[in-house]
Amino acid sequence: MGGTSGTIPAGAPRVAIVGGGIGGLAAALCLRTAGIDATVYEQADGIVAAGAGTTVTPNAVRLLRRMGLAEEFERRAVRLEQGWEMRRWETGEVLFVQEMGERCREMYGEPCYTAHRGDLLGVLAGAVPSETLRLGATVTEVADESDRVRLTVQTRAGTETVIADAVIAADGMRSTLRETVVAAADPEFSGDSAFRCLIPAEKVPAFARRPVQTLWLGPGRHFVHYPVSAGRLINIVAIVPAGEWREESWIADGRVADLVAEFDGWSPRLGELIGAVTAVKRWALYDRRPLPRWTRGRFTLLGDAAHPMLPYYGQGANQAIEDAAVLALCLRDVAPGDLPAALLRYEEIRRPRASRVQEMSHGKREVNHMPDGPAQRARDAGFAGRSPLAANAWVYGHDAEAEAHGFLAGQPA
Ligand SMILES: Cc1cc2nc3c(=O)[nH]c(=O)nc-3n(C[C@H](O)[C@H](O)[C@H](O)COP(=O)(O)OP(=O)(O)OC[C@H]3O[C@@H](n4cnc5c(N)ncnc54)[C@H](O)[C@@H]3O)c2cc1C
């Protein structure tokens, strides 16, 4: 990669990307830089900057840098100085903290950031040529036509038919196009829900404004906070038992009183932070296990459509960016007739790793939510001497493009 989107040569393959989230936009940028005529179809009338915070880890930062976006991203994000600051629910005692700043760069060549999803999306959208992005365009159907794919696209002006050489479904966690590749399956309810909100930095206690990712651990729930948007906003995510809440939507409103009640009796310092919350979103957490395949013919999945994951590992956006970079390497210089084989190579490279990250996200829940007692005390004692940065080397140290180059070099021409 390098620079933003390049000139598209005549006769380049036409690729339709369904969904203009982080995955779809990153894919458009990477594909166009690789000389592929990629167009994004996004159902919303504008780029949906909704959402709250997300972590952007070195494995994705190195790819953003190669896309030429790291500096702009850094201006809009927060570079973490410390992370995994674990605090005890009742007293606020710091059980553990990991130095992140220079240590992260030394170990993985890039820092770790926290960002508002909208800020990351804005950086990607700003680099994609406007004619590449069709807004207010919902893809309602895709159909194979021997050597091409026909898409039905609904816009305000009516129904359009689009012909493409390949389709990338980047239509998110609740992807409907996924069923083009695999049988429909109900997700598993995790039993938890997440409250999310953003608070202006000037309204929160000073400890919450530090460039630190903090986790308060307590029985059956945990509470996370960190600054985003160059420190102007503080992101809060509180994972609690779902009770009757079943709505799986990033934009559903929750009740502040319910959030307050969930953390009744916790440290007064945390109470002070919760006291600054005036509105919350709430979404039920559903788990989806790794898919057995991502690709069928000229059709493949990318981002949350391919590997939706519980948020415990903070890798949703990062894995989508890795997908985008690898997809572009696999499709570069490929003739339209060879796209199905190239899409399979993309899947072969990406599916094992993304599935592993999905499984890891699934396994994180128990540890954070232990009730007080011997197991919790053993957990807290075990934090000493740990290095989550080192333990996560396989995630943060990964160079998705280097892996793809290695894989593709070993393929017969
Ligand atoms: C509104 C929203 C808020 C979010 N908030 C957070 C957050 O606070 N923290 C966090 O870690 N993650 C958040 N996420 C998820 C996070 O963005 C993803 O995990 C990750 O970035 C991978 O994104 P994606 O591009 O694969 O999918 P998504 O970001 O879900 O994007 C999918 C896109 O596809 C579009 N789409 C769906 N169906 C069609 C169709 N048929 N035709 C055309 N377009 C279609 C959707 O409108 C959406 O823009 C949010 C996602 C959304 C959609």
Account of the 3D structure:
This protein is α/β, with parallel strands linked by helices and 413 residues long. It has a domain at 14-79 and 110-186 and 288-366 and 393-409: FAD/NAD(P)-binding domain. It is 32% helix and 27% strand. The strands form four sheets. A seven-stranded mixed β-sheet has the order 6-5-14-15-16-13-17. Helix 1 (22-33) runs parallel beside helix 5. The radius of gyration is 21 Å and the shape is globular. The two termini are 22 Å apart. The model has no long low-confidence stretch (mean pLDDT 92). Flavin-adenine dinucleotide binds next to helix 1, strand 2, strand 3, strand 9 and helix 8.
Give a quick rundown of the structure:
By secondary structure, this protein is of the alpha/beta class. The protein is built from 14 helices and 19 strands.
Task: Profile the largest sheet.
Answer: 7 strands, mixed
Give the beta-strand count.
Answer: 19
Helix content: 25-40%
Q: Could you name the CATH class of one domain?
A: Alpha Beta
Mean pLDDT across every amino acid position? 92
Strand order of the largest sheet: 6-5-14-15-16-13-17
Question: How many alpha or pi helices?
Answer: 14
CATH domain topology of one domain = FAD/NAD(P)-binding domain
Shape: globular
Q: Termini, distance in Å?
A: 22 Å
* Unreliably modeled segments: none
CATH superfamily of one domain: FAD/NAD(P)-binding domain
Distinct ligands, ions and cofactors found in the model: flavin-adenine dinucleotide
- CATH architectural name of one domain: 3-Layer(bba) Sandwich
Radius of gyration: 21 Å
Briefly note the structural class of the backbone: alpha/beta
Q: How much of the residues is beta strand, in percent?
A: 25-35%
